[in-house]
Write a structure and sequence with these properties.
globular; 3-stranded antiparallel beta sheet; mainly beta; 67 residues
Length: 67
């Protein structure tokens, strides 16, 4: 389970690690959500969050590292 912090998460409907969807997405608050990351070999992936306002764009600050 991964905790994602940011802003505007109210109503989030999906989280992706790169092109792969996370599971068990739970919105904790407008600034925090939790999700289970998909299995992946060692790599880095951008995290994308989809809300009623749209899907977040690529940002270097949103990188998740698989080890």
């Amino acid at each position: 389970m991964v905790t994602v912090t940011g802003t505007g998460f109210t109503g989030a409907t999906a989280v992706r690690f790169g092109p792969v969807a996370a599971t068990d997405v739970t919105v904790v608050s407008a600034t925090q959500l939790m999700a289970t990351s998909p299995p992946e070999a060692a790599s880095t992936r951008n995290i994308f969050v989809t809300t009623p306002a749209g899907t977040s764009s690529w940002d270097v600050a949103d990188i998740f590292t698989y080890k």
